[in-house]
Automatic annotation (TrEMBL):
Single annotated GO MF: ATP binding
Keywords: ATP-binding, Nucleotide-binding
UniProt xrefs under PROSITE patterns: ABC_TRANSPORTER_1, ABC_TRANSPORTER_2
Organism of provenance: Sinomonas terricola
Domain ABC transporter: residue ranges: 8-247
This protein's name: ATP-binding cassette domain-containing protein
Amino acid sequence: MTTDSELIRLDGVTKEYGPNTVLNDVSFTVGRGEVVGLLGDNGAGKSTLVKIMSGVVPMTSGRYLWEGEEIKHVTRPETERRGVETIFQDSALVPSMSITRNIFAGREITNRLGFMKIREMDRITTEILDSVVSIEGIKSAKQLVSSLSGGQAQAVAIARAVHFKRSLLILDEPTSALAVRATEALLNYLVQLKAEGVSSVLVTHNLHHAYQVCDRHVVMNHGRKILDIRREDTSVAELTAAVVEGVEGVRRFRTGRPLAEIGDAPGPLA
Ligand SMILES: Nc1ncnc2c1ncn2[C@@H]1O[C@H](COP(=O)(O)OP(=O)(O)OP(=O)(O)O)[C@@H](O)[C@H]1O
């Protein structure tokens, strides 16, 4: 069932790579203006789910609905057209171009004759860099991306995505290479975007960051969804148990008793 406030819904998604099932009947929704944490241990299937959501890899089976309408052929151009912006672990910037050119790639500001208004783009880039993620150590918007550290480059990609305010921002481990101040700025920005109705999916191993900003948490374990829970109904301790110990951790946490005393764990908990 879909609701009016639902932006995206993946229904019963399965992904197989050869004989390996890396996503097994996963359903995942994001509401309008909702920030959802996508959590789980290494290899749980988070990045695969993100790639399916952004149209980078096709699902083996399942359905993809956008505002209640099913999209049959989910491609990157299709999701981009609908306003999905994804920051992958290795942010897709062009090293040989300036920060400004990367920020405006494909959305250049031009005059009537089609020439790029570089000074205006540099000015806006400087504002974006100052306001969005306060990136330490960047001297100028004209600087080449090849001269930036990994964390700085990632922050530029994030700045670009948040500036163009898309309908769904997917961040795959965005804070892993960011300094403390830039991380705080990014998390605050997600909350600001939410107030403007922009939805986000935050993939992270840092459960404190997730708990700080996400309205809902989805925990993956070995390709299955094992927990889908609103922030007010959970805690960092429970999320930690779910990520580290899987479904047994959640059951133990909820009952406070060892698994042996409460019997076998059923399917996904919600
Ligand atoms: N292109 C691929 N071909 C085969 N197997 C793959 C491919 N991409 C991912 N996998 C496998 O799918 C599983 C899930 O990987 P995925 O990257 O989605 O996990 P993750 O939860 O994002 O992990 P991490 O936190 O380490 O990034 C892993 O076992 C991985 O080896």
